[in-house]
Amino acid sequence: MVEDPLVAVLTEVTMIGGSDGWWVDTGASRHVCYDRAMFKTYTNADNKKVLLGDSHTTTVAETGDVELKFTYGMTLILKGVMHTTEMRNNLVPGILLNKTGFT
Q1: What architecture is the 9-102 domain classified under in CATH?
Q2: Residue 99 buriedness (CB in 10 A; 0-12 / 13-18 / 19+)
């Protein structure tokens, strides 16, 4: 699966618990995380690929759910997050935030 190549970073998300490097990205179409330890669930990605901002593709190792804890006490669960180690920052597409759940 190759995603749209447009990348535009909007803002950094402030969180706690060692979850540095998360960015709300208006050009991304899927959640992407480079840190395997952040995944609450983890399943086979079936050889999916993702197109990165520098115009090359990388293999998605697995997909799963990631729980983010914010400094103001809320928790956000991102569903269907793609895991790839070739990212330096994790991406949260602004358009997909309505498909997640705060607790």
Answers
A1: Beta Barrel (2.40)
A2: exposed
Query: Residue type for 30, please?
Result: R
Does residue 13 carry a pLDDT above 60? no
Q: Which of 48, 66, 49 is nearest to 58 (CA)?
A: 49
- Give this prediction's pTM: 0.69
Domain boundaries, the chain: 9-102
| Separation CA 3–CA 6 (nearest Å) | 9
Residue 102 CB partners (closer than 8 Å, separation 6+): 74, 75, 76
